[in-house]
Amino acid sequence: MASHPDDQSSTKASALPIHIQGLTKKYGRMYALNNVDLEVRSGEFLTLLGPSGSGKTTLLMAIAGFNRPDAGSIRFADTEMILTPPHRRNVGMVFQSYALFPHMTVAENIAFPLKLRGTGAEETAQRVADALATVQLSDLGERGIDQLSGGQRQRVALARAFVFRPRILLMDEPLSALDKKLREQMQIELKHLHEQLGVTTVYVTHDQREALTMSDRIAVINDGKLAQVDTPHAIYNRPVNRFVADFIGESSMLPLTRDDTGKLYFEDHLIATDYQTETGKDYALLVRPERLFMIGDETVDADKTITFSGKVREFVFQGETAFALTSISDTHDLSFRFGTDSSSSQDSMRPGDPVSLGLNRQDVIVIPQTSDQ
Ligand code: ADP
Ligand code: MG
Questions:
Q1: 276 shares a domain with 158
Q2: Least distant ligand from the CA of 55
Q3: Of 189, 223, 243, which residue is a domain's last?
């Protein structure tokens, strides 16, 4: 087989970092992207997470070259791409709708990008066979697209996106047409595939659990602006504002007041003594429901634990966990979620039952009340 200087014997491509600066895209007077700065590291799996209409697809299409931003820069490593047409960017793409060619077989679909690039027959056959093996469809190369299930079609779309060894892979809600079980299975498969290929990947979803499952880092986007870019762990445990806190996971917010010495209180509960606050800003305590725990007769060390006493308002048993909405004052509730076990009396709380909930001080999260950044 003739070998080209840029041939690579391993499946690992040399990945490229993406540097995005000041990216702005307007539709009429509406900003779909508003001055976005984002660094996607070489080889990382970065997820753009945000509600419908927040600008995720617009940003992905700008990286792929399918839309022209009004301002800003997109560099792949050191090369400015803003004026480079899509077919010159060497980017693999997977969409929610599979966009496969219905009149071609599975193998012909996967071979298509190689054909466009003038790859020789022998090498094409080898790469298609490798790609089929990678997505575990080796036996189905000769099938028609209409003879495949949804999950299999999405695997074909994936194989077609990476068969030409792009150095960047972009995926726009690729799993959202699949049912829950298959979606969760494919999330893990995609993660493994990414590890295997080592390609810089930007993945779009509006599903926070999917983002937490798959990503090295998550970029939370709202109204065309990035709200926070961080690891799943940091996004969940240290959200920078209320939007991020609300969008990722369940939470309760309790408004805080500040005394002359800078201590933060919720009603008469001391919440934090040394939190850096800015004057003029309001703060809230963010409580994740699974961080709360039930306190019985035991004595509690107030240096370590904040105690909220209240009454159960609503109780829902949901199998592996149960959920209790608990009123802790006239106007404030806490959501409390806990693991169930077959013998526990907690599994059958009733509305009106008194309950004491503990929160370790190390689990205190204070965030600014307003969501403007
Ligand atoms: P997402 O993918 O996060 O759901 P989009 O990037 O598709 O959001 O859209 C961001 C905003 O830009 C939305 O308000 C959408 O209506 C608008 N928009 C997207 N594409 C176009 C277009 N071609 N013409 C006009 N408005 C558009
Ligand atoms: Mg979209």
A1: no
A2: 1
A3: 243
Of ligand 1's listed atoms, the one at least distance from the Cα of 51 is: 3
What string of H, E and C letters represents the secondary structure of 193-251? Answer: HHHHHCCEEEEEECCHHHHHHHCCEEEEEECCEEEEEECHHHHHHCCCCHHHHHHCCCC
- What CA–CA distance (Å, rounded) separates 153 from 100? 8
Smallest CA-to-CA distance from 268 within 298, 299, 237, 302 is with 302
Q: Which of 29, 57, 59 to mutate to test the pocket of ligand 1 (most atoms within 8 A of CB)?
A: 57
Position 179 scores a pLDDT of 86
Q: What is the CATH number of the domain that holds 214?
A: 3.40.50.300
Q: Evaluate if pTM is beyond 0.85.
A: yes
If one counts the domains in the chain, the total is: 2
Instruction: State residue 346's pLDDT score.
Output: 57
27 alpha carbon, closest ligand: 1
Whether ligand 1 lies within 6 angstroms of the CB of 101 is answered as: no
pLDDT of res. 278:
80
Question: By residue range, what is the domain housing residue 127?
Answer: 12-243
pLDDT, residue 2, reads 42
Question: Which residue has a Cα nearest atom 15 of ligand 1?
Answer: 53
Quick one: which H or E segment has residue 66? none
User: What is the pLDDT at residue 164?
Assistant: 92
Give the tokens for residue 301: 């060390």
On whether the CB atoms of residues 203 and 145 are closer than 8 A, the answer is: no
Residues with CB in 5 Å of ion ligand 2: 57
Q: What is the mean pLDDT of each run of 10 residues along the chain (373 residues)?
A: 42 81 97 98 98 97 96 97 94 86 95 95 96 92 93 92 94 90 89 93 96 96 98 94 91 92 92 83 93 91 94 92 93 93 70 95 89 47
- For residue 58 and ligand 1, the question of a CB distance below 6 A is answered with yes
Residue with CA at minimum distance from ligand 1 atom 6: 55
For residue 224, the ligand 1 atom closest to its alpha carbon is 10
Q: Which ligand is nearest to the CA of 29?
A: 1
Q: Is 50 in the pocket of ligand 1 (CB under 6 A)?
A: yes
